[in-house]
Write a structure and sequence with these properties.
By secondary structure, the chain is an alpha/beta fold. It is built from 7 helices and 6 strands, in the order E-E-H-H-E-H-H-E-H-E-H-H-E.
Length: about 200
Amino acid sequence: MLALIDESGDAGFKLDKGSSIYFVICMAIFRDFCEAERVSKIIDNVRKNSHHTGEFRFSKVSPKVKDAFFNAIRETEFCVRALVVNKKLITEPFLKQDHDAFYNYFLRKLLERDNGILRDAHVKIDGKGERKYREELSKYLNKQLPDGKIKKLRFVNSSGDNLIQLVDMITGAIARSYKRKGQKEASRWKDSLGNKINDIWDFE
């Protein structure tokens, strides 16, 4: 089992000075490593056919490329679970004052609320921070999560990993549906995921 994790938004609380209102953290889960490899190859083909160079990042690619990407993964097999935080509703001081604590807490919550799916999972997270921070996060998750949920945790550079780019695109699509709620086609790419989305948890 393979789980890929990425986020959209930031951990800041200067909401009137540019900090994001919404923080979205998302997990794409493959039960089959062979399917994960197939999806990676599909993404390579999208890159080639759309003449896109570099990473697929939701915030950077055009609507045309987004359409090509989401259409290409439509018939693939993985599931999506996400947690959405409206920071206007957060009151706990430790979450508002410590960016690392904020990220670690909501990453843990995402992994805990897996509906029993994760079993000896290989988890890959888009690279965060220095080595010391990564080691501390690994210790924190090992302490907080039940045994048997995660077999291996790795931090990877998204530029060299198509599946981290996959979860970036998915997370961006979900975040867009919240940031542009009420606007035309706000959920355009999120809706294209259909029943791949198992759960989107609005944290309160």
